[in-house]
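Handoff note, outgoing to incoming analyst
You'll be picking up this chain. Sequence as last confirmed:
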Amino acid sequence: MRSNGGSAVPDTRRPVPILLGPTAVGKTAVVEALAESWKIAIVSADSRQIYRRLDIGTAKPSAAFRARIPHWGIDVVEPGERYSAGRFAREAAAWLATVPPDRQPVVVGGTGFYVRALADGLFQEPPMDADRRDRLRAVLARMPTLAAWAVRLDPAFSGGGRQRAARTVEVALLSGRRLSWWQAHARASGVIAPWYVRLTAPRAVLRRRIVERATAMLRDGLLDEVAALLAAGVPPDAPGLDGVGYREVVQHLSGGLGRDALLAAIVRATGRYAKRQETWFRHQLPADTVTIDASGTPGTVAAEIAARWAARGR
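Most recent structure output, in case you need it:
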């Protein structure tokens, strides 16, 4: 049930499992195992997999799996294009509407802002003067401590890169109210009934998986992937390259990071990112979120998800 002007009405939104977890926890392997017993369709909620030609560094599902199971949210835009949580929510709602009744949609990813925009709905951004916004953006582009300013202007800011920090600062300065205020007071209703599953793992297990994945990415050609993008004219500061792994490779290719230090730099950055994701999940997901230890085999984890789904509401 959900409230509508003070009265309770049936919730007719389609129930959708949302599988979340930090980078490298094993979400893709688990959903591949889940597909063995469920007839599913997948919407990726990953702010890196949205970009075309960024394959190795984003750990996209294999081409064979994507050919077998319907996928949306992968290879949507070019690396030079910005892609917002709002756009994801709008497009994901359209993708979900095309899932046939005989398939169970599953949202999978680690980008909490994308998931919240889809599940909780979007707010209408306040009107802001375009000229002032352009001038402010020019100033913000030169600021090295943008995240610190975002936190000072809106203590609810929980990270997410320079683009998100810049938007937090813009809204606070140009509208006179914090972004978190607008989100709390002007949010529309969501389009799905989310059933949250949070995958987690002991620190040592996650650390090992991060090292293994970073090592595999470098072995499988991450440097060549980034070099090809730069040679094709993608700017080194493009939105698609402003992500863990890609930033470090760009730095290496520009001569700012030695080859011997590259793997360690990617592992450190990935570990910090995973920690931020875990913090966000702990504080932003609802109390009834199902939390599952993903340190076991993907098949074991998938079986537990299926059992919890079958038992929900009992």
